Amino acid sequence: MTGPTQPETPALAAATAMFVEVLVIGIGALTAAVLLLVALIGPATTAKLSPIAGSSAATGAALAGAYALGILIDRAADAALTPHRRRLRTRFFASNAAYAQARLRLADVPALAARADYARSRMRICRGWTFNTLTLTLTADLAILRYSFAHRPLILCTITALGLATTFGFYRSWRALTETSYRKLAEQTTTLTASPPVPTQMSGSAPS
What we know:
This protein is mainly α.
């Protein structure tokens, strides 16, 4: 007789979440790469290649490419924003060791650790899409300049303005989430390490 289904382990759940994060970031990067390709090869070649884009092989390759690009963009965005992230962290933690110890203490409380993981997931997505929206704006502008259609200047200006505004929005979201995460981590770990007051026993009383 088949036993009950085992619940998903925390490690498997974390790995699944990380895969989804990287894929979400990679889809934006792949779209920007496709727009750049369309701008480079022109409308005639794009029309010839369009039937291939709908094939199963192209879909599989796109999924793999999106995941690979997601890793690349995530690492590049992290490297670019690391100096700013460290400046934010020094407002709440005096050293890297203090931050690492706080992370370890928080791991002892599963509910708080799960909330912190969710916050970091949103930070990574905002961080990656800060770069995605910037590259999407640039490549979309290049593609629009390559093709001829009505109201092209208006569309070009609209896409540029919306793209830059979205890029700034993702950056501000990443900064706000990062700062809030460090502040909550400092507050929560301070509460966890605070020693409870020891009750004073009356003289001559026996311990219970």
